Amino acid sequence: MARRTRVLESMRILGSGTAVLVFLLGMAGCQSKTAATKENFTAALNTYYASHDDCIFPGGLRFPYEVSAKGGAGDGPVSAKQLDALTNAGMLQKTDDKELHINRYILTPAGTRATVRFCYGHRTLTSIDSSTDPAKVNGYPETLVQYHYTLMDVPLWAKAESIQAAFPEMGKAVKGGGDGKARLSQTLAGWQVPE
Fold it and tell me: pLDDT-based confidence at 76, cuts 50/70/90?
């Protein structure tokens, strides 16, 4: 309150034209959300990742999920080894269909809570390593940011050694974080990940 009173008193003494100039110069020293700074990039990416988890199966799996009981190349995008690791962690239940020679996996109650995407935490930036100079794309300035991160809110099942061995990329991120790239667009509200 005292600071505001001093500012108003200064404005009265200097006159309105000079006071406006002093006010604008003072505001110029303040950091804008639209400035291309590491702080603004970090804030934008942390806001984005707070609601966008990293997941083992980003597109999700349809359950029941079936793979050949013989294993091998016919497993599809997910191997029996990976599904068995999730089974051992209590996320899936496995049944053998001897007649059809397939293994069928369904979600357990714990697996249902993890959802069909099996998300294992969200990124929090530890550093911005580099960014490109902003250039207009679709009418908005954009930059490509390279960064390092750690994972937050990692569920217990994702910390299991058997899960990390079956999904090495996830295991590496859970243990020590990682690096990534993201494109950011400048908007009136600040920098954002375009969706």
Answer: low
Alpha-carbon 46 to chain mean position: 7
Please report the pLDDT score of residue 19 as a whole number.
Answer: 43
How far apart are the C-alpha atoms of 171 and 162, rounded to whole Å?
9
